Backbone:
């Protein structure tokens, strides 16, 4: 029940359709004179798995804390379920947050850890607590673990107890700050799929914070990429990878090669490399300083004198350079080739298997042809 003296976002968050779960408008936060978050405007849709992705210190936790109400924005507004959240304290917001260092109570068993939230909030009759805990544990696939002590659980199991505890009050919105940070690589990968499954089952809006791009790509319906307190792009994982909006995004998500120069007549005039063909339809005006971004998996290699497969277009507009092979890195599922181009810059090519996609047998130190189809490159003016 809502106390009469305080406003709440609960009723609004369950009412009406089409309103976003969260709407941020011009949100900013300055600590002293340091701007931690600047001018963020975005919507998080209902039942969406939304990730905030960016390097350490870029403002992810601060942005999330402004949604929860633990941090008050210095600028802009936060709306939850279509209702202005200004002045609404965290415990009156229809949400729950799993903090960066989720803390379970080591002296309580699994059942009591999960029940804690309900007991403190006194939001359910005592008789309902047992069944609610069993339901929450089933959701995270920990049926029958209620009597275990926290010390008898693996890292992944502890993580799932924390998620059960956060979900038991059935919030409309669950915010998770680096939820898988404490887990090893393999367990992380498992839990990423598990989290996504749980989110679909409960139909709750999930907002997670991560600095791991693979994690964001795996779990999210949409991703907001942040740098230096600003949101640079909000898009689906595929769009973020295939159509990055800025050089930072292209570099932070996966690996990209960049060729810098001035755009003129459909080509990028790159000092030391000549006029490099750009893709069509980029919409950037001539005379702009740009970067041409190319993913390593789109760079093909060949021996001098041979054609570069996939890049040797009949119209002759394919990009081809002669480079020197500096390093070959075998990655298991692919092999990475590090080249130096005539202007001294580096270029990375990646091919499945160990043959470089061209019949194999490249050796470090030899000259190689590297090329790509301009349609696989992207013009970036930011
Ligand atoms: N309470 C505070 N007082 C002063 N500065 C703060 C405070 N909280 C955060 N900051 C600063 O704001 C910036 C953003 O911090 P934030 O914790 O949001 O980053 P983050 O993206 O979550 O980083 P990480 O990935 O390391 O957790 C940092 O420069 C940080 O030092
Ligand atoms: Mg953080």
Residues:
């Amino acid at each position: 029940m809502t106390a009469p003296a305080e406003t709440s976002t609960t009723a609004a968050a369950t009412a009406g359709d089409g309103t976003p779960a969260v709407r941020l408008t011009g949100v900013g936060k300055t600590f002293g004179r340091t701007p931690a978050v600047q001018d963020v405007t975005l919507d998080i849709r209902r039942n969406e798995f939304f990730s905030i992705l960016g390097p350490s210190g870029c403002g992810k936790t601060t942005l999330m804390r402004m949604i929860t109400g633990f941090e008050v924005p210095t600028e802009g507004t936060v709306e939850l379920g279509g209702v202005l959240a200004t002045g609404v304290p965290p415990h009156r917001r229809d949400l729950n947050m799993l903090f960066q260092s989720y803390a379970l109570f080591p002296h309580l068993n699994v059942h009591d850890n999960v029940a804690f939230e309900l007991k403190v909030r006194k939001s359910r009759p005592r008789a309902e607590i047992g069944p609610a805990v069993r339901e929450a544990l089933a959701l995270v696939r920990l049926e029958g673990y209620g009597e275990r002590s926290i010390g008898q659980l693996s890292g992944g199991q502890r993580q799932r107890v924390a998620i059960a505890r956060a979900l038991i009050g059935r919030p409309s919105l669950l915010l998770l700050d680096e939820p898988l940070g404490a887990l090893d690589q393999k367990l992380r990968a498992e839990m990423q799929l598990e989290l996504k499954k749980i989110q679909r089952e409960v139909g709750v809006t999930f907002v997670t914070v991560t600095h791991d791009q693979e994690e964001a790509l795996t779990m999210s319906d949409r991703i907001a990429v942040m740098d230096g307190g600003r949101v640079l792009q909000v898009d689906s994982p595929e769009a973020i990878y295939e159509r990055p909006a800025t050089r930072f995004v292209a570099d932070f998500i996966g690996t990209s090669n960049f060729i810098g120069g001035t755009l003129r007549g459909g080509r990028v005039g790159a000092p030391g490399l000549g006029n490099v063909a750009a893709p069509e339809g980029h919409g950037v005006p001539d005379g702009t300083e740009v970067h041409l971004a190319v993913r390593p998996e789109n760079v093909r290699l060949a021996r001098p004198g041979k054609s570069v497969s996939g890049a040797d277009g009949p119209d002759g507009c394919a990009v081809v350079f002669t480079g020197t092979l500096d390093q070959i890195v075998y990655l298991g599922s692919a092999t990475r080739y590090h080249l130096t181009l005539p202007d001294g810059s580096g270029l990375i090519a990646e091919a499945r298997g160990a043959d470089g996609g061209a019949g194999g047998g490249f050796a470090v130190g030899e000259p190689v042809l590297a090329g790509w189809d301009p349609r696989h490159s992207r013009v970036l003016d930011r």
Summary: The chain is about 25% helix and 30% strand. The chain has a mean pLDDT of 86. The radius of gyration is 25 Å. The chain has two domains: 10-242, 258-380.
